[in-house]
Structure formats: structure tokens, C-alpha cells
Amino acid sequence: MSARTLFDKVWAAHEVVAETPDTPAVLYIDLHLIHEVTSPQAFSLLKGLKLPVRRPDRTLATMDHSTPTSTEQVFGNVPIKVDAAAKQVRQLEQNAAEFGVELFGMHDSRRGIVHVISPELGATQPGMTIVCGDSHTSTHGAFGALAFGIGTTEVGHVFATQSLLQRKPKTFAVNVDGRLRPGVTAKDLILAVIGKIGVSGGTGHVFEYRGAAIRALSMDERMTVCNMSIEAGARAGMIAPDDITFAYLEGKPRAPQGAAWNTALARWRMLATDADAEFDAAVDIDASSLEPMITYGTNPGMVLPIGANIPDKTGDEIFDKALRYMGFHGGDAMLGKPVDVVFIGSCTNGRLADLQAAAQILKGRKVAPGVRLLIVPGSQTIKREAEAAGYAEIFKAAGADWRESGCSMCLGMNGDTVGAGQYSISTSNRNFEGRQGVGARTLLASPFTAAASAVRGRITDPREML
Amino acid sequence: MDPVSRVHSKTVVIPSSNIDTDQIIPARFLTTTTKDGLGLQLFADWRYRTDGTPNPDFALNRPEARGAQVLVAGRNFGCGSSREHAPWALLDYGFRAVVSTEIADIFRGNSLKNGLLPIVVDESTSRWLLENPGAEIDIDLNAGRLTLPTGLSIAFPIEAFARHCLLNGIDELGYLRSKIADIERYEAAQAS
Ligand code: SF4
Questions:
Q1: What's the pTM?
Q2: Burial bucket for residue A215 (CB in 10 Å: 0-12, 13-18, 19+)
Q3: How far is the CA of A349 from the centre of ligand 1 (A)?
Q4: Does ipTM top 0.90?
Q5: pLDDT digits (tens, 9 = 90+) for A137-177
Q6: A150/B164 touch (CB, cutoff 8 Å), yes or no
Q7: Residues A442, A431: contact at Cβ < 8 Å?
């Protein structure tokens, strides 16, 4: 057989029916993750057709997008602020019960952001196909899974058939050699990749992140990288599984155990791209040359090394419109600009390693007067781990607001929002207009940069504080 | 789904590139559990001022935009979140087609499944359309051609199966369910 990429191997192993010029492939889905926002209409579709969920055993549900993060609202008797959100949560509870789908509900100790909990449980595994009605499903590609976001109609298709109609995407090698320097993180790496490729450069493709810098990353860091593949327009992002992947998964509750573990391991070791396999496109990046990155505009491709000045493109109407929204000017330095809100969390940077990075900066320091620092763990498990490790105490002593898990200020659906005109440094993944609240101005950065900027109240190069 | 074969309409133009689905329908409106009525919230943060009144400068609010079924936009329309609420909102508002030089993957798939035509055109056609808001254009799905009022007609790409489903009003789920025997065989082979 000719040399194949990681993607080719996973795709081929899941083709129920191969594609033809007239018909797309029928692709089998191993794991279907669902949440409260993009599932209700799909359950309605099933009800209309009187169909069951075909494989509830391959379906996992959680609630994360519209759920509150204040402890009183999650565990106390304080009602959810947003009425419609409360209704959506109840509807997921009813649907999960009716269709026999396992749900990590509001009070479950394993609840959290869908892309955080599935790896944590060991449900995300190498070589799988994983889908969710959510574009950041690409996160799971960090394990060598083919994982991508789908719309609600397709959620219904997977419910009914455990399969999807798909055209085979093209492959794109993102080669990252060298080594990240101290203070430069996986988040900076992926922001630099998006800056280089552009927000639509990956359209129609599946990325494979390769090279020494990728191999050196922990699983938490690899998830940060794969998470933002969609921000470059890619369908998915993958990293070949290796000993770091296997060490992460071993012993996780839903990972194979005993003899099944050894069988799985032998299979997973075959997944890596063959030495002379070819990609449809490629880009090379030198990790050693990267700096901490920060966005300055209204899409993640408008990104700069933190010490740089905003480019001057006066006359480019679309560029000018983005800067007007942000209240910035061409030629401005990013360093030293004032900050109102800092958000540390999300499926991009809400894992334990991210909280550890924030704690490293915040230890023995205080949030600048007038700045609001909101820290939201990616899952309840991470919350407990961060508390056990002493990070939560550091955060509270610094003056941060430490919350229950959820998407929170990443998309501001649950009432955690940034005010109009306010500047927010956020470790999330989207700086679109209004993403964090009507009129909110979002600057994407790493947990290091976010924490350092919270302390100074201004955009700060975190390396000054490490 | 009703068959779709032709859209003949004037256009409305939003020239921005990278219009993401958060702009098409902001997240705070996603708490709905149905597909209905989302047209009211289409482009909410651009369309309405903070006091809730229409922003007269926004393309959709101009009198000449009324009744337009074709939205012409800059490059990379529909990027970002996978929310299918985006095509639902566009359709509920009355749009039947979106034209751009590039349309993001997930949005394109979601649109096709709901009968909203995602039409990708070349740079020069796009430029002409962006510069001529309100132009009466014709989109013929059967022929795979978009015709400008100048008489210029260009072919647009559309995936064969999606086109077949749209023209015949076929629901993709019906087709997928016709493959259940194959799916069962696949599952049996995996389990053994
Ligand atoms: S944290 Fe943000 S990006 Fe991630 S799933 Fe939640 S809303 Fe989506």
C-alpha cells in the first residue's frame, strides 16, 4: 500500500461506503459529544421521525455553554439568571433521559466543557472519529483522532445512523520545528500559525501538526494547538499519538484496561503518518523564533508578537473597520494598552496546565485596581485539581473571581460578559465583534500574558514577570 | 425540504470579509430550542442600535434592500462557530442564497442541508457584485450558473450530491438511512 498520512488511515478505517463522484462517503462516527445549545432541534428531528438514538453508548452529553458559573447558581438555590438558558438545560435533561443518553448534568462532579471532559475521561482516543455540534471539536485531534464540528442537522444524522455523509477533505502539514522559548506557550504557537496561514487558509483541509516543537508539547498543550485549527478555517487538526499521548490516557476511566489496553496500544502505534506520505499543502514554522502573541483586531488572524506595533493599512476599509471597533490605530504599540477585564478559561486554555501558568504569575501578586479577573476552570475535575494544588488560593489571594466550570466569558451566553467598549484579555479562541458581550473588545493571548496583564492593568510581556 | 432550483432576485451587499457566524446570529440568541423566528435577530448587533432601533446605515435596513433574496458578502463568509442557527436565521429572514469568493466549510454544509445556496464566485464577479448592490441576478442551480444583469454568466461549483438533493427536495437523512444495512455490517465487523 502506498504511504499514508495519519488522517488517511483514520478516514479509511471509518469508511462505511466510499465516496464516488456523485455521492459522498458514509463515515462511521465512534464518539458523538453533545451539549445543550446545538442538540435540542436534533432531538426534535428524532421525535418527529419517531426514531431512537441509534447508539446511546457512543453518545455523551454535558451542559457547558449556557450554564452559570457562580457556585450559588450551580449548587445553591439561586436560579439561573437567563430564563431561556434554564429552559435549554432542562430540555437537555429531559432529552437525555428520554433517549437513554448519558448526561453529565449540572451537579455531576465530572461536568465541564465538552472538549475538556471527554479527554479527561479517556473517552477521546487515538484513531477515533469524533464529532460534536461545536466547531472546537478539533481539540480532540490532539490524540490522533479525526474530530470535527458539525451542524445540528448532522447531529440528527449521527443520532439516527451513527454516521455522516462526508466528502474527503485535503491534508495540510503544519511543520513546527525548533523549540518554544521560556514564556512562549502553545497558545502563542497556534496564534502564530493562524497569523501565518490566515483565517481561511485551512478551508477544506485537515491539519496535521508535526515536527520537534509539537512532539515536545504535553497533552494539555497539544489540545490548545488543535483547538484553534478551526480559527485557520481547517476542518480538523491532528497530532500523531505517541508515548506522551499513551501516558496521558493510561488508567483513565474510559480508556481500555488490561489486555484491551495492550491491543489498543499496538493499534495506536500504527497510526502515525508514514515516512514518505504526501500532503496536499504544507507550511513551515520555526518555534524558536516565536514571541508571546496577542490579537489586535476582530478575527484571530489579526495577531502580532506582543512587542510589535499594529500595522498601518489606512485605506483598507475592512482593516480600518476592525481597528475602529477595537478603538486602536495603525502604528500603536500593543504593550502598555489598558485592560478592563481578564478571562482565563475556555476549551482552549482552561486546563490544569493553563491554571498552573496563571498561578505562577499571580503567586504573591495582586490584580491591578479596577481590573476584573475571572478564572473559570474547564471542568469540575480541573476545579478540584486546581484547589488541591493550591492554585485556587493563589487566585483568590490575588483578587481573582474563581468560578465553577463552563464556557462562561468565552461566548458570554450565560450572563458572564464583558461590557461595551471594555478591553478584555482572554485566553479563549475568538475575538469576533461582540463575542464576549455586545461591544466587547477582545484580545486573545496566553494564560501567562493574561495573568501578567491582569497584575499590571496593562498589556504586559509575561517574560518580565517569570 | 422543498426543492430549490432557481433564485432570481436583487442583491443586498455586506462587503466585509470574514463575516463570522457570531455576527450572523450572536450567541445570546442561541438559547432557543426551535428554529423559528431567528430572522428577527439576524445580524442583530449590526442591524440594531443599542436602544433597539434599526441602524439606518446597515445594508439590510435600507429601503431598497427589502425583498432581496441574495446576500453578497466579502471573502470567507460564515467562518467561526458551527451554529446552524446562522443559515436558519438567514432563511427565516428571507435569503435564499449567499454569494462570496469563499465560504467557510461548516457554514456551507449547514446551508446546503437547509436549502440556502452557498455560491462561490471568482474575484472579478465578486467585485462586480460588491460594487453593484441591488443588481438583479439569476442563480440557476440546475445549470450551475449565475447570471449578472450585464448578461455575463459564470459557472459556480456545487457538490454533486448536495445539488441533487436540493433540486429534488431530498433529505440527506433519508439517503443515509438507506445505507443502514452497510452501517450494520460495518459495526459487526468492528465488534468481531
Ligand atoms: S469554551 Fe468557548 S469555544 Fe470552547 S466550547 Fe465553550 S463556547 Fe465553544
A1: 0.97
A2: middle
A3: 10
A4: yes
A5: 999 999 999 999 999 999 999 999 999 999 999 999 999 99
A6: no
A7: yes
